[in-house]
Amino acid sequence: IVNKTHRLRKNGIPFRFCTNETQRTTESLVNKLRRFGFDLQVSDVFAPAPAVRQMLIKQQLRPQLLVYPELLPEFQDIEQKDPNCVVIGDAAQYFTYDAMNKAFQLLLSLEKPILISMGKGKYYKEGKELVLDLGAYTAGLEYAT
Predict the structure, then answer these.
(1) Which end of the chain offers a freer environment for a tag, N or C, measured as fewer CB atoms within 10 Å?
(2) How many domains in the chain?
């Protein structure tokens, strides 16, 4: 794939990498791919967080973020005081009872609750075992509200 992307760029053929990655910033992902030999820019990658960020700006939403800490820089310039929506990404060990309950309480308090999920995966393989993915937590909040 590395050789093919070099060939595409050399021939002026535009391409995009699409990812469902919500544990790290797009910049961090691009840096990782560069270490594997890919000649990529952040603009070559379409990821959920920047898309959600644009949506938040366009709709003037102030999120309560339930995301992995490494993803927070994607939202650093977004107003988060007095949140009027919940944005949920893969938060792994940060999906605590308190964090989920805080999101639940906010959604219940809103006249028109807005839950924005950056994924709906049921589970994924980590090491030798299957672990819950973002979709299970999203479904829980949807069901409860």
Answers:
(1) N
(2) 1
